[in-house]
């Protein structure tokens, strides 16, 4: 098995465990601690040492991990990689129970810009964070994941909608509440009680007395898989953007200890990033200010630093090639994609793209570019948000992907591995990040 095969197998295992942003951060923490990183608590003093490896978690769904260079400390600048932990999904509402015609359904809210049609006829499970009162009278939280198919959203048969293949649309209020089970006429469903029972299964001895609230989302139980006649594709849920979280993490774990490096994975990108733990919130800036020590040091640190924002790019779809600019249609397995937009929907500029091209060439990794069609609106990433909030030079990069925001997305098996190689070189680059 070569390095790329090992990379993709482990990526599939990571995706299987990272079913929510909370679970993604928990999995990242587990891997960081196994590599010698230690947690810093934000309301305490930090004892930061050269060569030290640290991480900070907020809300259980965003994480900043960093290593202090033994040769180039923070004041010489940071090599930063950013990604996001959240993906479009169906979140369970606070009072979700719907009993109709003997079926228990749960009301859901669409999180982010989900492509809804692929959610029909899938085997769905539930995962998330639960807040509960324990028998000692205190408030506690815990993560749960049913890890098995417990729900589905059946399609309406074509016999009952003969125009389905022409103009069927999805009403997110009426059409997508998942079915969990059948109930007899005298049964009364209580979703919080279902969660309480699952808490006891996953956390025996937790002393749960009453579930107070929750952040639970449905997800597809079909595992990530290498597909394609030649094994050239990776199919999975949540590739946008857990693939980038994993890629950045793998690069960080191969840090050589010389320069100061940082990985930030924010929650809430899919809904605009404006939150206490989103890229438009204070988390990253707070960490950088503590590393800098004072305002003058912070200004020097950000001026000498650079961020690579990693978020998936739109690969050119052979059935819809006219959706791309003819000279900027990225191919799967043809290299990571530099994302450019003159209206600052992406934060790349010629200096940051030039450095990336130099690093990629040193690794023998091909590079592609994406520019949206001039007559179409452009999406965005945490790149421009981080650049605006922190004031750091930024590059937007991504792995070409099909079906972005679907319940199951498709990427190439070479691209994430190649991006990780370039990010590793970026972290371990011995020279200045700025052009002279």
UniProtKB/TrEMBL annotation:
Q: Domain of life, per the record? A: Bacteria
Cofactors that this protein relies on: Zn(2+)
A Gene Ontology molecular function term of the record:
zinc ion binding
Keyword list, A-Z: Aminopeptidase, Hydrolase, Metal-binding, Metalloprotease, Protease, Zinc
Give the matching SUPFAM superfamilies.
Aminopeptidase/glucanase lid domain (SSF101821), Zn-dependent exopeptidases (SSF53187)
Q: Does the keyword Coiled coil apply?
A: no
Under the heading InterPro entries, the entry gives: Peptidase_M18, Peptidase_M18_dom2
One Pfam family from the record: Peptidase_M18
E.C. number(s) listed in UniProt: 3.4.11.-
Membrane-spanning segments: none
- A cellular-component GO term for this protein: cytoplasm
The broad enzyme category this protein falls into is hydrolase
A GO BP entry is:
proteolysis
Which family is it part of? Belongs to the peptidase M18 family.
Q: What is this protein called?
A: M18 family aminopeptidase
Q: Which organism is it from?
A: Halioglobus japonicus
Q: What is the lineage of its organism?
A: Bacteria, Pseudomonadati, Pseudomonadota, Gammaproteobacteria, Cellvibrionales
